[in-house]
Amino acid sequence: MLNHSIKRCYGPECEDVVCTGRYWWLFLASSLVTLAVGTGLVFLVRFITRLPCLNRRRHHVAGPDGSGCCAGICPINLLEKNAEAEIHSIEAAKDWATRLLSAQSRFGRILLITYFCISMASYAIYVIDTGKPIERCLPADRGDLLFFIDNIFNFFFLGVFIFRFISWNDKFWFWFSVNTLVDIFTIPPTFVSLIISRTWLGLRCLRIMILMQLPEILQLLRVLRTSNGIKLTSLLTIVAGAWLTSAGIYHLVENSGDPWINFNNSQSLTYGQCIYITVVTMSTVGYGDLTPKTTCGTIFIIFFILGVLAIFASALPEIVEIVGKGNKYSGVYEPVKGKKHIVVCGHITYDSVSNFLKDFLHIDRDVVNVNIVLLDTTDPDLELQALFRRHFTKMRYFQGSVFNPSDLQRVKLNESDACLILCNKYSPRPDTEDSGQIMRVISIKNFNPEMRVIVQLIQDHSKTHLLNIPSWNQAYGDDVICIAALKLGFIAQTCLAPGFSTMMANLFAMRSSSEIHVKVVKDDPTERVVETQSVVKNASSPAETYLSPEGWMSHYLHGCGNEIYTESLSRAFDGMTAPEMVKECFIKLKLLLIAVQQNNEFDETEIIINPGPYITINQGTVGFFLAPDATEAKRAYYYCRACHSEGVEVEKIWKCECKECESLDNNHAKKYTHKDGHKLLAMTRLGDHHEPAPARSPSAELAELKIQGVNLSESSDHDRPAYDFTGLFHWTPARTVEDALITSAQKRRYLVNHIIVCLFGDESSPLIGLRNFVMPLRASNFKYEDLRTIVFLGNIKYIEREWDKIMNFPKVFIYNGSPLSRADMCNVNVHQSAMCVILSANLGDSVEQGLQDKETILSSLNLKSIMAAGAHSRRSKIIAAYAAESPTRLNGGSIKRSLSTQGTPKITVPMITELVNDVNVQFLDDDDEDDPDTELYLTQPFACGTAFAVSVLDSLMSATYFNAHSLTLIRTMITGGTNADLEEILAEGGELPPGVQISRTRLKELLRDRCTVAQLSIGTGVFQQFKEGAAYGSLFLHALESGILCLGIYRNLIIAGKSSSKRYVITNPPQDFDILAGDRIFCLKHFEDLNMNKEIPETALIGSDL
Q: How far apart are CA 1007 and CA 1017, in angstroms?
């Protein structure tokens, strides 16, 4: 292409020799000279300003104070007033120029936007000029409008250039900034064009570099507000700027040709074709249809591949990730008409979400017409994404923050039915985790004060901060699930009734016996399959199920299928007493009623566990049932005496055609809403007058140790129990750690039938809340003489940190030692203990799952080794002889001693081990075959009640959402009752307040209305008349006449026809279930104390005089 021929000039008949000349070097030289002169002037000015200091340095090396003349920067005549005024003027001009260009001012924002728009207009003129010759003349008689407009733009750029130069701090590096280089290669050629009346296309393509300021412009216009949007725009502008600029340079060199061969090898390419070449080269495709023909073009492509390709390769994956992520997890949730939805946030991981979904969407529930919306700030991993795909009809995931109101609006929190906040139960910093949970509650309540919130917390004391939130209201369904309190409460009740933690965990978890198909095998011994855990695991496939219907696992799984359901009671039960209704439901409906909910005289909702004959069923009463699924629980609502006579099968008890049943439909819809307030009957109502109670001396309990032949669980005749200010718990004056410390051998000698708690924390470990373990064991519905001594074995520095929370409970002692030491375990008489509890440290210092429970597993194995060694020791023989002579000294059944045929005693101490990781349950027993992939509830240690993990508490979130009263029921059964006033006092710290004036009548009501968990043996006490082979239904009805409510059986484990010392849990067995002689019955008993029926002076019921 002849760029300078007469034909291509705008002067059609231009005969000037200048038109055919080439002056590209002049345009390029103007830019390079400008850059060189600019940097040279900066160096010259700096040298001149420092020249006086250099001259002075020759004559004055140092001043009187030792500092040189040129210790710092020494400008010209710095000490002269004129010089100071000049410096101030320069600084003022610099500040003025900075404010002028700053986007903080309105003028600066307008200038920035104007500069961007004019730069894009200048680039547009350049694109138009690419269709004209690279270099052409401009005849004076014919003007070029675009050239004129572009010159105006360049004068504007020159003014901005001057302002930027004034405001720049380092003048030298100013010349090498991107905007300066763009101005240098576009503004000076304009002046050359005006002088010689010629124009050169040159490097005007550099104006497109202004695109890199587009994110800043869009932020000023409030178009970009998210970090992902800003990052995506920045990446796109960088790639586009490099792409279009490179296309312009390639267009210049290819259309011009090589100068050393007189531009004879140029080729005619449009700007669009150059863009195409750079795109295919940038994407490493290179079709070869268009290739460079000039040497300059070839060299440019080499550098282009090395530079721009690296930018493209690094930016493209981020662009794809942001765009893909935005399409998946951004956007707005659109509620489905006729369906509610809940928002789940907090600790969102595969484990937490899968555990939640498994219970929330369980088949045993009624049709769950609720969608789940997850909100979290992180990107879901591959496992979590797979979980989303499996439940895509029920669940949506949105990326956002609970603390951002716009994100809460995206998930339609205002329209949701509730907000559930999951926590990281395994966090090594529980206080920090709880603080984050509480802040989420504050953010949600600030967004919508009436939103129902169910939150998980680790520490019990953290829930105090929830009470400080003005909009937190349990009457509207707000509730908190305290992991530590519930966990330790379960373990504490297990000390009273071994296996109770397993029973309760299975009851509030949604599990169905139908999930494991049981195949009946013949009674032929050759065909009977030994029940091992691997068989149970394979039983998930019907073709591989080989469980005997009479085997222990079948019985256990049948009990696992029971859950707690709430249902309104039929009008057919109106007027009945509670025991009569329990009997009616048990016999005719095959349902077990454990509690009722009624309104009292104060119009408050009360939950009454194991209701007595003084409770009458009336309209609106709600029952709590143990049933396999919600459909069976509805029998209590549809039951009709007229239609469901004696001959009607229980499976056919359903809605009938009676008018009475039709009238119930309206009441059934209103049976419960989460805005109904509730109150436990076990809570006391205190009078206005409080008097401190007289009490024993702080060392009264330690004095018991000095009495020969009296164990620590017994009190002397002159000691009488004292209660706290609510009357709910036994109380004693505060004791110091030294008073409770067991040091002498004489004190250790009388530790019998006690509870040992093994702790692994140190002075820096997070607290676990030992008060939650002690309180259920010190409930006032236990007789004082029945309270078992509690001994905490561990680092005394750790126990001291929690001692102020438990120092007001009686019969609590400390032994400074290690649970891993055999000597320390023997020093606390582990052979004669009623229960040994091993609590997990959860220090969070182990990355591998198998090492998270190393302390508890080693301690558990250490205890079993001690028992095995003790069976052959002289010490065990003495203990066995002692037990034979004084059988009443030890709690019957708590310490099991059986003599073998050779007379060697076998000692087994009940124990329960807390685990952090469920998989580690396989290491607790060496005689079972638990597979690592087996769920925790199917393992032998959990079925026997000797293992517990906090993972079983995951199902409480969904249970609380569907029925808020279920959490209240469970909390009351395992914590021994609580009181809002008591929680507030305990939250403030300090001592537990002493007893108050409580009337004998009120105290009798208080103790009568509170049940205790117990385990009764067959053939003794209430069950004395029952022998092996009796039906469980007969036993249940007989116990009901005595005010005892049976829940299940704790039976000896028989594996492959061999008896074992282990026991397993059977929850709510059928009526025709056969009883064995060694069975123990889980039951709920009311408080019994014959002294309460005697005439006691009112003054004797104050504090310790009780």
A: 24
Beta strands in 98-243 (DSSP E): 135-137, 198-200
Q: Do residue 811 and residue 942 come from a single domain?
A: yes
DSSP state of 1048: E
Boundary (domain end) residue, out of 952, 967, 985: 952
Q: Under a CB-based contact definition with an 8 Å cutoff, are residues 589 and 652 in contact?
A: no
Question: What H or E segment, with its residue span, contains residue 93?
Answer: helix 81-101
Give the pLDDT band of residue 675 (cuts 50, 70, 90).
Answer: very low
* 283, 349: one domain: no
Query: How many angstroms separate the CA atoms of 58 and 855, rounded?
Result: 76
- Look at the block and give the residue holding tokens 């143990």: 626
Look at residues 435, 444, 433 and name the one whose alpha carbon lies nearest to residue 402: 444
3-state secondary structure 292-323: CCCHHHHHHHHHHHHHHHHHHHHHHHHHHHHH
pLDDT band at 991 (very low <50, low <70, confident <90, very high): low
CA 366, 369, 371 angle in degrees (round to 5)?
135
Distances (CA, A) of 31 to 25, 174, 252, 685, 1102: 10, 15, 16, 92, 101
CA-nearest of 410, 1088, 474 to 783 is 1088
- What's the CATH number where 832 sits? 3.40.50.720
Q: Is the pLDDT of residue 1079 over 50?
A: yes
- Domain span at residue 836 reads 709-952
pLDDT at position 1104 over 90: no
- Same domain? For 363 and 440 the reply is yes
Residue 320 sits in the same domain as residue 398: no
Between CA 492 and CA 504 the distance in angstroms is 13
Q: Which of 180-189, 616-625, 865-874 has the lowest mean pLDDT?
A: 865-874
730-739 pLDDT, tens per residue?
889 989 999 9
Give dist(CA 57, CA 269) in Å, integer. 63
Provide the number of structural domains found in the chain.
Answer: 4
Long-range Cβ contact pairs of 762-765 (< 8 A, separation 24 or more): 762/795, 762/797, 762/798, 763/795, 763/797, 763/798, 763/801, 765/798, 765/841, 765/843
Asked if pLDDT for residue 132 goes beyond 50, the answer is: yes
pLDDT tens digits, 429-463: 888 999 999 999 999 999 999 999 999 999 888 88
Alpha-carbon Rg for the chain, nearest whole angstrom, is 42
Other C-beta atoms within 10 Å of 869: how many? 14
Percentage of the chain modeled with pLDDT above 90: 24
- List Cβ neighbours of 947 (8 Å cut-off, separation of 6 or more): 912, 913, 914, 915, 921, 924, 936, 939, 941
Nearest-angstrom CA–CA distance, 244 and 992? 77
What tokens does 286 get? 């290179």
Q: How far apart are CA 947 and CA 303, in angstroms?
A: 67
749: in domain: yes
Distance CA(284)–CA(309), nearest Å, equals 8
Token pair belonging to 342: 């809940």
832-856: average pLDDT: 78
Res. 671 pLDDT band, cuts 50 70 90: very low
CA distance 1034 to 1019: 14
| Residue 7 pLDDT class (50, 70, 90 cuts) | very low
Question: Count of alpha carbons within 13 Å of 357, Cβ hemisphere only?
Answer: 21
Query: What whole-number distance in Å separates Cα of residue 476 and Cα of residue 472?
Result: 8
Nearest to 834 by CA among 886, 896, 778, 888: 896
- Whether 933 has a pLDDT exceeding 60, the answer reads yes
pLDDT in tens, 40-63: 888 888 888 777 766 665 555 444
Regarding whether 908 and 872 lie in a shared domain, the answer is yes
Distance linking the first and last C-alpha atoms of the chain: 115
1016 and 1081 in contact (C-beta within 8 Å)? yes
